[in-house]
Structures are given as structure tokens and as C-alpha cells.
Hints:
Blueprint: H1 3-10, H2 14-27, E1 32-38, H3 39-48, H4 50-53, E2 58-65, H5 67-70, H6 73-83, E3 88-92, H7 106-111, E4 115-118, H8 122-131, E5 136-143, H9 148-160, E6 166-173, H10 175-184, E7 192-196, H11 197-203, H12 209-215, E8 219-222, H13 226-242, E9 247-249, H14 261-270, E10 271-278, E11 282-291, H15 300-303, H16 319-323, H17 355-361
Parallel strand pairs: 1-2, 1-7, 3-4, 3-5, 5-6, 7-8, 8-9
Antiparallel strand pairs: 6-11, 10-11
Amino acid sequence: xxxxxxxxxxxxxxxxxxxxxxxxxxxxTRPWVIMEICGGQxxxxxxxxxxxxxxxxxxxxHGPGCPVCVTPLELIDKALAIASQPNxxxxxxxxxxxxxxxxxxxxxxxxxxxxxxxxxxPLDAVRIARENPDKQVVFFAIGFETTAPVNATSVLQAxxxxxxxxxxxxxxxxxxxxxxxxxxxxxxxxxxxxxAGHVCAVMGYWEYLPIAEQYRVPIVVxxxxxxxxxxxxxxxxxxxxxxxxxxxxxxxxxxxxxxxQAAQEIIQRVFEPCDRNWRGIGxxxxxxxxxxxxxxxxxxxxxFQVQSIHTRESEICIAGLILQxxxxxxxxxxxxxxxxxxxxxxxxxxxxxxxCSAYFRFHKRD
Length: 366
């Protein structure tokens, strides 16, 4: 057994998790609503059954930290319009291929003869552009702060290689403005946050300090294994029970306060903040990144002139309410019937980080 496997097993050890759950049970005295921001954390919580093992006073609600889920319908339609063009090789992570647009999805485009490829990195798309100089190669650049550095790097690499046939369709979003939007809503029930460890590995957690202070909510940076999550919940409960509202790092083996400053510098070099539309939620000011003017030649929206595409979201899908922690997937009247992974109405049902997908896969269909 290698060191990595041993470390992973330690953080999945049921006896250690139970010990932390016993501490939560001993210390909680009243109901609390805690939001895990990241969809990866949601899947881990439901897969391990952690939500059912917590004392009834603790309610976990699911946040907007699934990049596929928050990509708005109009941007999916822009991707489909670009991918349908005969001279285009459209590259994307696999999660995006099943996300429905207004009339079809990227799988349908590929089945109809479109050049849609699944890649594991935008640098793969840069390589494809080098190998196919007669084609326009577009990468669907979605994600939170976690994927922004490598997406920015792909632009810098394309610039260095003088590739005129590479561009990115940008759908980057940022966590702190989303937290502001959730907490400033009069409907918000969130009393504490589990922050996403991989985002904080890049950005640090210094941006969360004014949020905790302004809204008087504890924020605990948390990993993804059951023990990480249980410890993060315990740290949050202890703050709530004592009336504290601080930012604590429950993931110190990966995260530092300042984060990866080299990665942050790459992001700032290529991208600049912009207002961004979130699926089912609407526009959140300064919540996204767009290419800086110096790199506008790599902007697929401008290159293919699809900026004018605007689309209405489904009136049936309640993804926006789920992503704000106001509803659970099982509250949706079409969950598991009209809306399934094979016939999804919205991205949360097909994304590997989507809350609806997690509820469908694990024990929540009732």
C-alpha cells in the first residue's frame, strides 16, 4: 500500500468518522443549516450516507459549486451554434456533452456529424489546433477558480505558438460573489458554509474573511473525503454554537491562506472580472471572468459572432432554487420521472457534480 492510498483510507475510516459524528451529536443544541458549496462535496456526502448519519438538528443544503450546473442555457446554445459549423472542432470536458440546450446537446451534434471531441485538458485542445491548421478549434472553458489557471495557460500557449485557429468559449465563475448573492437574499436559510478545498487550494481563503464578517456566518474550508467533511461540519457547528463567525481552514494538508499565487497571477494576466449569468439564478455582478482585451482574438463568442444568442430557462426545472439551497432535488415535481439522467431537463441531473445526479444515484429517489 503506497502513502497516497494509506492517506485516503485514513480519511475514509468509518471509526474515525463515527468519532467525529459523536462529537457533533454531543455539542449541537439547536437546528442549524449548513451549505456545502461544492458539488463534489455533495456527491461525497450522499455516497457515504453522511447526511443520514448526522444528528437531526443539522441540515445540509447544496450550493452552486457545480460549474456544469451553473452554466446558463444561453451559453449552451452558443456552444451548440459554434459546434454545428462545418469547419469547427469543438472540444469539451465530457460532462458538458449531455447538458441540454434549447433543442439538442453536444452529443446530438456529434451524432449528426459534427466534430465534437472530449478532452481532459485545454492543452489537449491546443495540440489539436496545431495538428489541424485548416480547422477552427474551440475549447469550452467552464469552471470555477480551479480550472481557470490551466484555461488561461492554454491561451498563453496558443499565443506563443501563434495559433490563429484556437479560441475558447468562456464560462468561468467565481465563488465569493455567489456567496454574497446567496447570503444577501431575504430567502436565504444558510447559517454556515463548507468552502470547497480545491478552489481554496488555488485562491486561498483570504477572500472569505470579509464575507464571514459582513454576514456573520462561519466559513470552514473543507476537503472531500468523509472524515474531511465530518470535521468541517464539526468546526462549523462549534462556531455556530459559540456565536463565532470566522474563516477556519479544515484542509491544511492542501490549502493555505494565500493559495497558489503563481496560479492567481496567470488568471489575472489573461482574465478580468465581469458580470456573469448563472443558470436559474440570474446575473451576479463581478461573478465571472472574461478574456482581457489583449487576448480578445481568442474569444470564441466574438470570433463566431454568437453574442446575440439569448435563451429563456426552463419553467419546469428548479435548478436555480436547488443551487441556492432553497430546495432539494427531491422537492422537484418532475425529479426522477420526467427528468432523469437519460432525459435531463437541466444540467444538475447529468453533471458528475450535480445535486440532482447525486440524489438520483444514491438513496434519495423517494
